[in-house]
Amino acid sequence: MRVVCVCGARPNFMKVAPLVDALHHADIHPTLVHTGQHYDEHMSRCFFEELGIPRPDINLGVGSGSHAVQTAEVMRRFEPVCLETRPDWVVVVGDVNSTMACALVAAKLNIPVAHVEAGLRSFDRTMPEEINRIVADSISDLLFVSEPSGVENLRREGIPDERIRFVGNVMIDTLLRHREAAEQSAIRERLGLEPRGYVAVTLHRPSNVDDPTALGSILNALENISAELPIVFPLHPRTAANFKRFGLGARLAGLPRLIRTEPLGYLDFLSLMAGAAAMLTDSGGIQEETTILGVPCLTLRDNTERPITLTSGTNRLAGTRAETILAAWADMRANPLSARMMPELWDGRAAQRIVRELMACRQARTATSRGAPRMGPVAERSVPPTMTGVHGGSPDAMAAVVAAGGVES
Q1: DSSP for 218-247?
Q2: How far apart are CA 67 and CA 73, in angstroms?
């Protein structure tokens, strides 16, 4: 089975790492394509090293640009890869421009597309990621869902059940695998931080960092919070540039209890997050990771595409204005949340389930092309209302998976 796995930006790397590993364990050696959407040392290469991801087979070297320019360039450079490799599956992850662009290329070439982390919806189409998610889901052949809301969203949009698989969360696969190694990080000692004695912050979404009013309001909130606890702030390159561009750099640098750092590698950041009294973030993945770590999280947005982190985890929506952030901060300090329950299938085995489904669907297509009765998950099973477990897979397909490498269910 020929598989092309696509990654392009920092959030993708944590999702593709367990997939590549699970494929290798099933004796499938994917072609790993890095689009180059994130390309510098802190945003890319160190993640490959720390997560044990093989060196990409192909680096498209796209670099930065507007949404239109970046998307078009990914498509232009990815098409020859598909034409040369003619894979059985193109697997895309997450919701960045590379996700949508590569899914479009594969779909137009009639190459089956599998979207990992499908079905998440913020219902806010001003977010570029929301457009990417909707487009990728609408043209994908298999949609691998991380939480029950994703199944309901896809059904509401008319996606048939036979294309949906509720498999769990590959980002949590990575977190659980590397949590012990992260405990060995010396990042807190280097920064002079005591466990549970600081707040960690990340900001990168355009709605927060490209608007001087929004960025200034968040800075007001950070100034107030830093009077109570020190803040450590790994700065995304774009965020750092905008603080300077909007004339807020000197004010940020002048906060005596705010520690600025470059973007951190995965293990250092996981250690920092695990030891924090709270996270303030506009990142989707951090909402999920703090749920598993039991760390209170204030999401600096008015919505989330990951509602399970609100109902089962430690996450609160705090908005983006100083008054709403500080109100949420006060409520969190007075009424701290711990993780109320582990979300279903966030158990470190999502990637194995995904590989099992890819193999079973490939076998079903092969059988159909030979004129055999249609078998396997595409025609045989749908997602029942309980959404419990992983759905689909004939006994023959399951036996084939075990023989190929013992992928666990």
Answers
A1: HHHHHHHHHTTS-EEEEPPHHHHHHHHHTT
A2: 10
Average pLDDT, whole number, for the chain? Answer: 89
What does the buried/exposed string (b/e) look like for 305-319 if buried means 16 or more CB atoms within 10 Å of the residue's CB? bbbbbbebbbbbbbb
* Residue 91 contacts residue 114 (beta carbons within 8 Å): yes
pLDDT, tens digit, 9 for 90 and up, residues 38-95 = 665 555 678 888 999 999 999 999 988 899 999 999 999 999 999 999 999 999 999 9
Q: What is the pLDDT of residues 158-177, one digit of tens each?
A: 999 999 999 999 999 999 99
Q: Which residue has the tokens 């099973």?
A: 381
**Which residues are known catalytic residues?**
204
Is residue 189 within 8 Å of residue 367, measured between CB atoms? Answer: no
CB 207, CB 242: distance < 8 Å = no
DSSP 275-305: T-SEEEE--HHHHHHHHHHT--EEESSS--S
Q: State the pLDDT at residue 385.
A: 38
Measure CA 212 to chain center.
27
Is the model's pTM score more than 0.85? yes
| Gap between the Cα atoms of 237 and 135, Å rounded | 28
CA distances to 187, 191, 202 from 261, in Å: 11, 9, 11
* Spatial strand order in the sheet of 113-118: 58-59, 31-34, 3-7, 89-93, 113-118, 142-145, 164-166
| Rounded Cα–Cα distance for residues 194 and 203 (Å) | 23
Contacts of 92 (CB under 8 A, 6+ apart): 6, 98, 99, 102, 103, 113, 114, 115, 116, 136, 140
